[in-house]
Amino acid sequence: MNYADIKTIDIQDGTGIRVSIYVSGCHFHCKGCHNKEAWDYNYGKRFDNETINYIIDLMNHDYIAGLSILGGEPLEPTNQQELVSLVKKVKETYPNKNIWCYTGYDFDKDVLGKMYREFPFTKEFLDKIDIMVDGEFVEEKKLVDLKFRGSTNQRKIDVQESIKNGKTIELKFGDENRYEQAKNQKVSVFKQFEKETSFV
Length: 200
Ligand code: SF4
Known about the structure:
Layout: E1 2-10, E2 17-23, E3 45-46, H1 49-58, E4 64-70, H2 77-93, E5 98-102, H3 107-118, H4 120-126, E6 131-134, E7 155-158, H5 159-165, H6 176-196
Parallel strand pairs: 2-4, 4-5, 5-6
Antiparallel strand pairs: 1-2, 1-3, 6-7
Helix pairs in contact: 2-4, 3-4
Bound molecules: iron/sulfur cluster.
């Protein structure tokens, strides 16, 4: 596996201040993707033990809340296999820091429904992931101020609770409550308008 970039400080892709790695290779090719160069599996640098040790060093600060894994597509089977050693080392070294992973795959259908059953490395990988943001980026569903996701179809999923319960447990924090409220406000304004303009 190759990787496109490592960010030493990231405040967009998960809670708190984080270290992020962008892996190379993605077959989804979403319209409006910001990381097109990372579609190519050969883009960037080779991921190896040195990369893992570098990330572990970067995370060795109290202000670093965790690691975010993005792409490209971290859950391409070839990428997952190599990422297992990274997530294991992170959790072994920093059991109190969390790991977020972003994927274009659908968590219910593809991740739990297929990969988790078929690939032994998916189980090893998911065991160490706290939150997964799933789904392809859909440009028509993009809102600029969404938190920790690019389009409204994407979900923030509690991976460990989902595995335990055998179904997807979505986390509602960040922006969902705000959008729910805005939606309800629009409905009540519309009802008020209907009442005021009614001729009956
Ligand atoms: S899944 Fe992510 S990296 Fe892949 S094309 Fe879509 S937005 Fe880009």
